[in-house]
Amino acid sequence: MSVPAASAAYRISRPVPALLWEDPLFLGLCAAFDDLLSPIVAALDCFSAYLDPWLAPEDFLGWLGGLVGVTAGQSRAVIAGAVRAYRCQGTAGQLRQAVAAAAEVPPEQVSVAEAGCVTWSQTPGAAVTPPFDSVVTITVAVPSSRDQDAVAACARAAAGPAVPVFSQLRIEVVSHDRV
Where are the domains of the chain? Predict the structure, then answer.
């Protein structure tokens, strides 16, 4: 499929000196390159629309879903949700959402607490030992009728991959009764 030269957003012959505009060979080559490059320029101009699950063409949606681990048959909303989850991966908000989904509780019943410290060394390549207590504590409030061990296992499975390797993960399950 070719794009008409009239629709080319950028013409190669436009920025050249006027002296070259009189050369038919040069203009013919420029027109050929315009025809050749127009689809590429058009695709790059709207590339962000291809990466948006709500705007992507139907035939591109399967590939986009494959990037985030979602099958092609699932809806645009599921793919958009996976994209959002990857965008905030590793943050306390994403950790709260993942644990809430795994424990089947509202996100408001999950709290994430961590030290939030950084460390550095003036010596390149030196082993840096964190001078702080690197513990991520996740507290899940569930009704007393729920199995707290099962909720803790679900929370640990959901939070484990998101917590850095140098941090410890502490899961606390507290019971509450709705009034």
Answer: 5-45, 48-86, 105-176
